[in-house]
Structure to design on (211 residues):
């Protein structure tokens, strides 16, 4: 807040002059437009950008592209956070920003409108349960996009609270292998984005060969 209020003239930034009809409040950067194009094309994308650089805006656009489509009233979007504390934070934001859309929550100790919601906020382990569950396959078929927040947690051994394994890296990998829809992977701290992106591309190629 201090930087924004008092140091703007010391932080040079070349803002795009041309607007984008998909964004009303500001002129998005080139990389943001590229991600919007990917979402419109129903493609997967890895976004590595510093905190407060626009990843939340991208997530909101992705969710809007699913829940506001009149030709797909059954479409679902899943937002995956690495632990329960972040799930609670994200769920509160979803309730505020998408108050007319049913939002559900699924963690180890709390379930709310899991399969009836248009927006589901969950942790990796619980999404894996849904993706593998024989009784939830109808719901799985309606998932149009998955947003994987803090995807760098894939390299962590254990991020869950109370000794749980909500954030286990292998669970994130299982999710990527099980998904049959595009995804957005978000992170601010991946040090080798090219290698990681290549690995994600290989996963999607493996899925295509299996299908």
């Amino acid at each position: 807040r201090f930087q924004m209020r008092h140091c703007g003239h010391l932080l040079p930034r070349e803002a795009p002059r041309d607007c984008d009809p998909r964004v009303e409040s500001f002129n998005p950067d080139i990389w943001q437009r590229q991600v919007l194009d990917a979402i419109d094309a129903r493609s997967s994308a890895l976004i590595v950008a510093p905190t407060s650089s626009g990843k939340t805006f991208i997530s909101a656009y992705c969710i809007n592209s699913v829940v506001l489509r009149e030709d797909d009233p059954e479409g679902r979007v899943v937002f995956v956070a690495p632990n329960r504390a972040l799930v609670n934070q994200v769920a509160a934001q979803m309730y505020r920003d998408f108050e007319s859309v049913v939002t559900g929550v699924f963690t180890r100790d709390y379930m709310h409108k899991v399969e009836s919601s248009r927006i589901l906020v969950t942790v990796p382990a619980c999404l894996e349960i849904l993706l593998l569950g024989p009784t939830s396959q109808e719901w799985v078929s309606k998932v149009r996009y998955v947003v994987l927040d803090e995807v760098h947690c894939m390299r962590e051994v254990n991020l869950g609270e109370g000794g749980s394994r909500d954030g286990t890296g292998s669970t994130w990998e299982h999710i990527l292998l099980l998904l049959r829809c595009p995804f957005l992977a978000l992170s601010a701290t991946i040090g080798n984005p090219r290698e990681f992106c290549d690995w994600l591309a290989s996963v999607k190629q493996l899925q295509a060969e299996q299908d």
